[in-house]
Amino acid sequence: MKHRIRAGVIILQDDKVLLVEQSHPITEDIWWTPPGGGREVQDTDIFACAIREAKEECGLDVELDRIIYIREFYDVALDTLMMEIYFLAKSYQGQTRPEIEGNDNLPYPAITRVAWVDQESIKALDVFPEILTDDFWEDVKAGFPGVRYLPMHVVTA
């Protein structure tokens, strides 16, 4: 089994959250998630990883606020246990790119689209972490009062 550390960024605007659509490199499953990805050698820390990933995946320069979610999941097809750390964006600059050029040679999911999604629309999507479809919106209203550990999830498809 491989291990991977990932950083994701929760970016909010006008009661919407920014999500990226991804496709799995092996199963070709499609899902939506906040921009983020794996820590690389050039990243000085997990914060730098989150900032880099937001820029790469959606074209935004973000200023991070704090960690709000920690999540573990196991991807059976990739035989990889991932630890995700989600940051709340304090602010951002730039414009999102509505579509991203795919790269079929990536060992991890490729980004295909970027979109701002509201509370009602998100229910129709396959979204990770799953909290984005329900309790997340209560956390937004409460100002994200603390770090939440999200239960382990196994991706089998």
Q: What is this structure, in a nutshell?
A:
By secondary structure, this protein is mainly beta. The protein has helices at about 45-60, 135-140, and strands spanning about 1-10, 10-15, 15-25, 30-35, 35-40, 60-75, 80-95, 110-120, 150-155.
Class in CATH?
Alpha Beta
> Average pLDDT across residues?
90
What does the main sheet amount to? 5 strands, mixed
CATH topology (fold) name: Nucleoside Triphosphate Pyrophosphohydrolase
Radius of gyration: 14 Å
Looking at CATH, the homologous superfamily is: Nucleoside Triphosphate Pyrophosphohydrolase
Give me the number of helical elements.
2
The sequence of SSEs as H and E is EEEEEHEEEHE
Share of helical residues: 10-25%
Q: What is the first-to-last residue Cα distance?
A: 17 Å
Low-pLDDT stretches are 102-107
Across the major sheet, the strand order is 5-1-7-6-9
| Domain tally | 1
Q: Would you tell me the structural class of the helices and strands?
A: mainly beta
* Structural shape: globular
Question: At CATH's second level, what is the architecture?
Answer: Alpha-Beta Complex
